[in-house]
TrEMBL record:
Limits of the FAD-binding PCMH-type domain: 1-179
UniProtKB keywords: FAD, Flavoprotein, Oxidoreductase
Pfam families: FAD_binding_5 (PF00941)
SUPFAM superfamilies named in the record: CO dehydrogenase flavoprotein C-terminal domain-like, FAD-binding/transporter-associated domain-like
Gene3D superfamilies in the cross-refs: 3.30.465.10, CO dehydrogenase flavoprotein, C-terminal domain (3.30.390.50), Uridine Diphospho-n-acetylenolpyruvylglucosamine Reductase, domain 2 (3.30.43.10)
Name of the protein: FAD binding domain-containing protein
Record-level Gene Ontology MF annotations: FAD binding; oxidoreductase activity
Domain of life: Bacteria
């Protein structure tokens, strides 16, 4: 099946106002394209609207990484490769650079973007897990103006977010001061494949935030008081809202979540 219909419209605006205008004009038929690493496979399988594509690839300034007012802002079209190599990310959020540098293969890292990954809302994705531990904010733009949402409020469920029609994820923000310590772990059965479990821990001012992805429909986030408390909280979340598939059933993911909870906390504290 072709990813697009023969009559499909492709629009590549140069500014965000032009993006918002295009989305309003095209209506529900429009689909946003960032890097395409999630969107194109879905379109090939016949999932989602296929009549109009609005590309963010030419929008000026949307890939910028800046540090202002104590906040590190990463533009939506910044690629995984750019994030992994950017000196500001390395200084302020090195754990995010680590995660970005291990996503997929080189081709995926050179095309995939942080905004596309966040908007896709895949619970086990590297970015959602590490950004949850970093307590990130999602910046969302639209014709009505700009709004901000905590990542935990933005991601509603498996591949479900609070991104409304006509809106665009324009940036992701995290604390611009480097944490005292942090760690990120990824577990997958085949190198380069989608991870089964991701785990991140961030320690800042004697406060530890743990995030586990892939075992529940949204990342499980725990404010840690002890390893035992974190293990109990993760296990309770997995039991209450399990996630699984034919290759990695819920019980297996639950067990791997426990293993990686302990490992990532130990690595961050080392």
């Amino acid at each position: 099946m072709s990813p697009l219909t023969a009559e499909a419209v492709f629009v590549a605006p140069r500014t965000l106002p032009e993006v918002y205008t295009a989305l309003e004009a095209l209506g529900p038929a429009a689909t946003l394209l960032s890097g395409g690493m999630s969107l194109m496979p879905m379109l090939n399988r016949g999932i989602g609207p296929r009549d109009a594509i609005v590309s963010l690839g030419r929008v000026d300034g949307l890939a910028e990484v800046t540090l202002r007012g104590g906040r590190l802002s990463i533009g939506a079209t910044a690629t995984h490769t750019a994030i992994a190599r950017h000196p500001l990310v390395a200084r302020s959020a090195g754990v995010l650079a680590t995660a970005a540098g291990g996503i997929g293969d080189l081709q995926v890292r050179n095309r995939g973007t942080i905004g596309g990954a966040v908007a896709h809302g895949n619970a086990g994705a590297d970015y959602l897990t590490v950004l949850s531990a970093l307590e990130a904010t999602v910046v969302i733009g639209g014709s009505a103006g700009e709004r901000r949402a905590a990542l935990g409020d933005f991601v509603l469920g498996l591949r479900s977010t609070d991104l409304r029609h006509g809106e665009v994820v324009t940036a992701v923000e995290v604390d611009g001061s480097a944490p005292d310590a942090a760690a990120f772990l990824r577990y997958h059965r085949v190198q380069g494949a989608a991870p089964t479990i991701t785990a991140a821990a961030v320690i800042r001012d004697d406060r530890t935030v743990l995030a586990i992805g892939g075992a529940t429909p949204t990342p499980t986030v725990v404010r840690v008081s002890s390893v035992e408390q974190a293990l109990a909280a993760v296990d309770a979340a997995c039991a209450a809202n399990p996630l699984g598939d034919a290759h990695n059933p819920p019980d297996y993911r639950r067990a791997m979540a426990a293993v990686h909870t302990r490992r990532v906390l130990e690595e961050a504290a080392a």
